[in-house]
């Protein structure tokens, strides 16, 4: 398995009025053609890690890393134009809520075609056909109808499928999914994951799956990284989640109410100051 | 004993969309009742109809034996309070916590506001240090505690909870659920709680109703979900989905 992405000692910091806030503090991992989960609470730096790879970190923030490399390209040295060429074609990102991440005044079909034609030289009718095929690939039953709909005319699950279609149409090698199913109902959530799973396997993509839901990630990914306060506290195989060693991971697993268990009160996380070090 | 809440054939219609189709339900005093379903199932609409935030087209609602009319009076809100899902959207952004908690007391003409505000903050585990902060200075969990304090400050007997923890991290969710259980025990409150999370509902409620497209699917005891004693396929699907992703198939 070739390594697609190298991240070594990644640091993202934001200057604020009250001093520098370090959102990511020395994250390192390597990714091949596999599904890697990044889990943590809000503010743990998981999304900023994804955004730094994608090149979407806000301008005022400072990114430092010993190595941030995508298939041989040094992302830190790459120019804006080079990053732009990568974004969407070789690295793609799925965001949480299709309500906000799709363009509200453009039909779904046009948005998908726009992505495709930005990165590849294709004719209009071919682009339309490929967009329709892609919509069918994400299991939209009536692609021709959905092609001409605006984002507000479709449900959340349908919008997220359209988003996935748009992200995958240029055939990226690396897909970053930032809470792709958190805004959806549980049953729809599983449909979307099934589609994502198949596409990732069929196309041999690398996937970074960012989520706050430890249980969901562990059933979907091969490997899981657990983040706390900008650092990786533990890395484990998804299948071995129950043997997690770090008290934070254990606490996260423990504090969720489960069907068929009676624990009153629920155990809460006892945050230790040394986890921050 | 008169039930805390009795709903009979409640129907809510928006233009030509029927959000709630003749749902009936009785909640005893001191009971904790859960409503489960996916978006669009009508579970939140039911709570909002009780609170007077959704138009009742037909059917009746009785609170502690009192039939509710078209509008809700002040006495109703002394008795019934609601906690909303999104703590970022349900607190006034330009009011301090103190001001937020003072408003309901003012409206209902309480005299000893000072003491009540302090006690309410203590009860939700915030302490007086938070009293003069704005909501943007608080974390999600702290905001939801303020929302609970605001609901409890009028000493209601029924609390309507609309996904009170689904915007929170798992660890913070546990803290807020524990807090809700404790205030329920201390004050002998009646809960009607809406959630899409079966784990949360079985943890908090003795009885629950599964809903889909504005209708009741089935009614269960919390224990039925653990033993898979469910009659409807819809509920079974929800149960399977709650276990996470299964590869293959």
From TrEMBL, chain A:
It is a peripheral membrane protein. Transmembrane segments: none annotated. GO terms for molecular function: ATP binding. SMART domains: AAA. InterPro entries: AAA+_ATPase, ABC_Ni/Peptide_Import, ABC_transporter-like_ATP-bd, P-loop_NTPase. It comes from the Bacteria. Its main location: membrane. It is found in: Cell inner membrane. Keywords: ATP-binding, Cell membrane, Membrane, Nucleotide-binding, Transport. PANTHER family: DIPEPTIDE TRANSPORT ATP-BINDING PROTEIN DPPD, OLIGOPEPTIDE TRANSPORT ATP-BINDING PROTEIN APPD. Belongs to the ABC transporter superfamily. This is Peptide/nickel transport system ATP-binding protein.
UniProtKB/TrEMBL annotation, chain B:
Keywords: ATP-binding, Nucleotide-binding, Transport. One of its GO terms (molecular function) is ATP binding. The keyword Thylakoid does not apply. Pfam families: ABC_tran. Residues 5-238 form the ABC transporter domain. The keyword ATP-binding applies. InterPro entries: AAA+_ATPase, ABC_transp_ATP-bind, ABC_transporter-like_ATP-bd, ABC_transporter-like_CS, P-loop_NTPase. PANTHER family: D,D-DIPEPTIDE TRANSPORT ATP-BINDING PROTEIN DDPF-RELATED (PTHR43776:SF7), TRANSPORT ATP-BINDING PROTEIN (PTHR43776). Belongs to the ABC transporter superfamily. This is Peptide/nickel transport system ATP-binding protein. The lineage of its organism: Bacteria, Pseudomonadati, Pseudomonadota, Alphaproteobacteria, Hyphomicrobiales.
